[in-house]
Structures are given as C-alpha cells and as structure tokens.
Design goal:
Length: 634
C-alpha cells in the first residue's frame, strides 16, 4: 500500500521539476523581451536612417520587415508566456497538495466567506466551516458554487444512504485519476485568471434567463428584407427604365426602421461579447469534460454525459456559434459601415435573432452543465483528500436496523427497542485536522442503540478532541468521503453536539443559559419523530454552574438520553457520574489518563475502559507555581 510519505515525496519531486522548468521559461521570456525591444528600437532607427539617408522605398521595405520580425518574435514570446502561466498554476496546484498533506493552514487557499448557521447541530463545535476548518482542508473547488456544494454536504443534517453510496463510488473512481482532477483544476484556474475573479456560473445563468425586449425578431427581419428587396428593385428600374427614384424613399424607410427598432434588437455587440466572454471562461472547463476519454470510468462517464451525449448541444459547438455572432456584432465598431450594411440587409436583426436562439439553447443546457461541474468539483475535493491520505478509508454505512430492507421505509423504533447488533465500530480513528506527528488514534464501539459512554479523565487528556474525532469522521462519512480510520462501520444517524458553547453579550445570554439552550435543543431534536437515531456528543455538561447543581442536573440529563432513540458520548470531570453505570445498563464508562515523569505531565491520549482513576487539576496548579493546599476539601 502506498504511504502518505510516498505521496509527499512524489509531489515534492514534481514541484522541484516544475520550478526548474519555470526558471527556464522565465529566462526564455526575458530573452524574448530584450529581442523585442532590440527589434523595435533598432529596426525603427535603421529604417529611419535608410529612409532619409539612402532610399525611401528601401527604408519602407526595411520598416515592414522589422514589423514582421517583431510580430513573429511576439508570437513566440506569447507562447512562452502562456506556457509559463500554465506551469506556474500547475506548480501552485501541486504545492497546495503538499500544504494539505502537512495541514499548513497559512499556505491553503481561503474558503468562500459564508455565514455560520448559529442553530446548526454541529457546524461550530466540529470546525466544519470557516478558517482552519475541515472545509478549508478539503476544498479544492475553483468555483464558488463547487466549494459551497462541498460545504452543504459536510453540513447535511440527515444522511441519505443511496446518495452516500453513489458519492463513494465516484470518489473511489476519482481517487486514482490524479491527472484528470488536477487538469480540471488547472483549466478552471486559467479561466478564473482570464476573468480576474472567482468563477460564478450562477451569474451567467441569471443573465441567460433574462427575458428579451421583444417576443420575436422574425417580423422585423422579414420587413427589413422586404424593404431592401424593394430598394434594389426600384433602383434597377430607375437605372434601366427611367422609373422615378422611388428607391430613395424605400431606402429612407430602411434607415428609419433600423434606428427606431434598436430597442427591439437590444445591444447586440455587448450581449454577444459578454456571452462569448463569460461562456468561453466556463467553456474551457466544459470542453475539457466534453473531450476527455473516460474509458472504463463508468461512474464518471455517466456523471459527465451531458457534456457530450447530444452532438448539437455540446459546449464546443455552442461556443463556435457564439464566436460567429460576436464576429458579426463587431461591425458595430465602424459606425458608417454599420449603417450602410444594416440598411441593405438586416444584419444586426438576424444576429440578434440567432443570439436569442443560442441563448435559449444555453439556458436549457447550462444549468445541467453547471450542476455536474459543481458536483464534480465537490467530489474531486473528497477524492483528492483520499489520494493525499492513502491510509484513510471509505466507511461502511448501512441501513439502520429500523429500515425495511424491502421497501426502504424508515420506521422509528420505540425507546425500549432492544438492538444487540453493533451499530458503530471504528478502528484506529483519528482527527483529520491534526498533523500525523500530533495524532493518536483509538478504537471505539457502540454495541446497541441507547448506549451512552461517559468519558472521564484529567485536564488536557484528550476528552474533547476524542469527541470531535467521532463527530468529524461521521460528517466525512455522511458526505461520501474517506474517514480517518483503519475501518469504520456505522449506521445512519442524525448528529448533534454540545462542545463549544459561548455566551452572547448582544443577546443577553450568560454562558450557563447558552449551554442550557443548547442541551434543550438536543432533547428537542431527540423527541422529533424522525427515521434516524440521534448521535450526540457533549463536552463538560453543565460546566457553567456549581458542583452540586451540576451533578443533579447532569444525572437527570443523562438518564433522559440513555436507553432512548440515540447514542453518544459525554465527557466530564465529574467522577460522581460514573456511578450511573452501576444502575443503568445502557451507560458505559471510559477514560483517558496521564502520568507524571520527572516533574512533567505525560499524556498518551489512549481511550481505556472504566472510570478515570486519577485527576490532575491540583498537579497542574502546583506545576504552574500556584499555591495549593491539598488538605482543603473541595
């Protein structure tokens, strides 16, 4: 099996090769720049000298040859510049992969800004979005919509098993297709560079769907053709049969018709230029997906079928048609020629008519193309995550024990339902946002629904990190991505956490009241008649109040969870809570511990069964130099 170190070494060699190539291209570009300067000024000086001192014709010919040489050198210089741009972007892609491997937040691209959902059951607690988040670590999408789609997958509140299985199949296929994924990213980066902003397909889609200023231009086209035909006819009759100059009046009618119908035609030049320009940027990506040879990659081929399944609706065909219309519209730059041509033939009316037709075709095809591209970018992010972390695995997610395997109908089981099947089992599960050198993995199993694990342990022993480890891996699993575990078998759950609670000065909430509100929201979610059980993670329950009331409230709250349509883990410092396992069979105890070696506190971050045998608060205070009197009763 390929290791993460081997992936890193391959990427570092690729970056080194690209850096050498970029250096050579920069030197070549510099040489071309000096040659162009020399040709321009040297040729200009010699041409002037020959023109005035020797022969004017010879000087003119030399000037033309200088111009030709300058254009040839400029052509090759532009090729070098394009190659330099591609290599620079390619190096950026590979360097970003290395940053993701090292979890180097400073070198990772920022994620698109988006508001935090304050009432979300796990977004903030598990660092799913925002800076230094799971979304930032995963997101390789160039388009804003692709990144937001990945975010939506990570924040999904209700897992959908068929969708998860479909995504897993695509991620499994895309993981080995590194060149395809990176070239798709490269094309999108080059397109974004051309429009100097992040690619936003929705903006183009809104413009395409804007209604035209008139229902049809065909009457205008036929009217213009009729007037032009009459003008030609009357002109010929006047020329050969001495008929009165009626053609002057029909020509004037054509002139008036052209200027009075400008609103109906719209701004052909601006519309055609924008459509060609905006779609060409996306077309770089779409044509790559259209022309790619998918071979045996059936899942990917099916996903990308809209780009090539209809020959007349392919992106490349539509792009060529739009280019022709844009060329027609360029006549608008020459005012005199524009008027003459449009009086004789309905040039702009026909162009506007064809543009509307292509616009309608684009309005029909573009939503599907954009949807598949955004889907592919989100899937590519998950696949890239799997590629960079070869030890991670795609989890086994099965239908819950309460789902009819024949009909697929979900049924909520009563709280007393006895399910003896293991419904969550993870081996070597770790936190994907932690660097490998700081990460410790653990095994954990929930054997039945209604089970609650009370996790005790000293300060800094790893309780909170373990809770987040379980939660963030479930988020990855339900998004369809790989998880940081040797193996993970789980059924579908609704996830709810209470880990990072904060007070609110603006809303007038104290810390304790904010925590009470969050815990109440968890119970409310549990009481909902929904098909999936609740998987809860609670850190330091009721930490915002005194010892006596915290203990009374914690016992009552845990009893309200244990044995019901849920399961989860609660981390606490209150060792008195471990006694609940003696009276409630659905409660288990686990703990983390520490050792003091040579005056230093050592944590191994290993989860062990049973209640914690030690505490370390007084040790930490003593080691920090604070006064401690262990004879006092706390």
């Amino acid at each position: 099996m390929v290791t993460k170190l081997e992936r890193l070494q391959v990427l570092e060699r690729q970056v080194a090769r690209l850096q050498r190539r970029i250096h050579r291209l920069e030197q070549s570009s510099d040489r071309y720049s000096w040659v162009r300067v020399g040709i321009f000024f040297g040729g200009l000086a010699l041409s002037g000298l020959i023109f005035f001192a020797f022969n004017r014709w010879l000087g003119t010919i030399f000037a033309l040859l200088t111009m030709l040489a300058f254009l040839i050198v400029a052509h090759f210089h532009n090729k070098v510049e394009r190659s330099l741009t591609r290599h620079t972007q390619w190096q950026r892609i590979k360097s970003t992969h290395i940053a993701r491997l090292h979890i180097d937040w400073d070198m990772l691209p920022d994620v698109p800004p988006s508001g935090v959902l304050t009432d979300h059951p796990f977004e903030t607690d598990l660092d799913i979005t925002g800076p230094r988040s799971l979304h930032q670590l995963l997101n390789t999408a160039v388009s804003r919509e692709g990144g937001m789609r990945l975010r939506d997958w990570l924040l999904s509140r209700t897992p959908d098993l068929p969708t998860i299985q479909q995504r897993q199949a695509l991620v499994r296929e895309l993981t080995t297709m590194t060149l395809f994924r990176d070239r798709l990213t490269l094309n999108a980066l080059l397109a974004r560079r051309n429009i100097v902003q992040q690619l936003e397909g929705d903006r183009l889609l809104r413009w395409v769907n804007q209604p035209p200023p008139s229902s049809s231009l065909l009457p205008l086209i036929w009217g213009s053709i009729a007037l032009s035909a009459l003008t030609i006819l009357f002109f010929v009759l006047n020329l050969f049969l001495a008929l009165p100059q009626i053609w002057v009046f029909t020509l004037a009618c054509s002139f008036i018709l052209f200027f009075t119908t400008a609103r109906l035609r719209g701004d052909l030049f601006d519309d055609a230029s924008y459509l060609r320009y905006a779609f060409a940027a996306l077309g770089t990506v779409f044509e790559y997906l259209e022309q790619y040879r998918y071979g045996s990659h059936e899942q990917l081929k099916q996903l990308c079928a809209p780009f090539f399944s209809e020959p007349e609706q392919r992106p490349s065909v539509l792009l060529k048609r739009l280019a022709r219309i844009a060329s027609m519209a360029s006549l608008e730059r020459n005012v005199l020629l524009r008027v003459i041509v449009n009086i004789l033939v309905p040039w702009e009316a026909y162009g506007a008519h064809r543009l509307r037709q292509y616009k309608a075709q684009l309005a029909h095809a573009l939503p599907t193309w954009l949807d598949r591209w955004f889907e592919l970018e989100a899937l590519g992010a998950l696949a890239n995550f799997a590629y960079l972390n070869p030890a991670y695995t795609l989890p086994e997610i099965v239908a819950t024990a309460f789902q009819d395997p024949q009909t697929g109908v979900m049924n909520v089981a009563p709280a007393s339902h006895d399910n003896t099947q293991t419904i969550f089992h993870a081996e070597a599960i770790g936190h994907p946002l932690l660097a490998d050198e700081k990460k410790v993995t653990n095994d954990v199993t929930f054997a039945r629904l209604g089970e609650t694990i009370i996790i005790t342990g000293s300060n800094m022993s790893g309780k909170s990190t373990f809770l987040r480890t379980l939660g963030v891996n479930l988020v990855l699993a339900y998004a369809g991505g790989p998880v940081n575990a040797r193996c993970l078998h789980t059924q579908a759950f609704r996830l709810f956490t209470c880990i990072r609670v904060s007070d609110s000065v603006t809303d007038g909430y104290s810390y304790f009241y904010a925590e009470v509100r969050r815990l109440k929201a968890l119970l409310t979610e549990l009481e909902q008649n929904k098909p999936f059980p609740l998987f809860f993670l609670i850190d330091e329950i009721f930490r915002g109040t005194n010892n006596r009331e915290r203990l009374i409230g914690s016992r009552a709250y845990i009893r309200a969870l244990a044995g019901h349509f849920c399961m989860g883990a609660i981390a606490t410092h209150d060792l008195e809570l471990v006694g609940l396992a003696d009276t409630i069979p659905d409660i288990l105890n686990a703990h983390f511990r520490e050792e003091v070696v040579n005056g230093q506190m050592i944590f191994d971050y290993r989860l062990r069964s049973g209640p914690s045998p030690t505490t370390n608060a007084l040790k930490i205070m003593h080691m920090a130099g604070l006064p401690v009197d262990e004879s006092d009763t706390v």
